[in-house]
User: Fold this.
Amino acid sequence: MHNLGTVFSFEVIRTLKKKSFWLVGLGFPVAMAAVFAIIYFSNTATDTALEELSKQEFSIGVTDRSGSIQPAAIEQIGAETLDDQS
Assistant:
């Protein structure tokens, strides 16, 4: 039992000298930081695209050959009636 401290310190020093220990020990936090950075920049890009999309104007056109949609409903949603192009 008196050699336990010697063996323990030898094994700890031997482990700390290995490159693989440091690669695994520091690699995981670096990989997690990279994943979080990718998520952050992806969310930033999505927010920017959403802001640009909200500024765009659009129009709605309705083609109703059956006449089942009332013209007042088309006007209420801001759409316009289009002629059938088929």
Notes: Helices lie at 4-16, 19-55, 71-76. The first helix runs from residue 4 to 16. Strands lie at 60-62, 79-81.
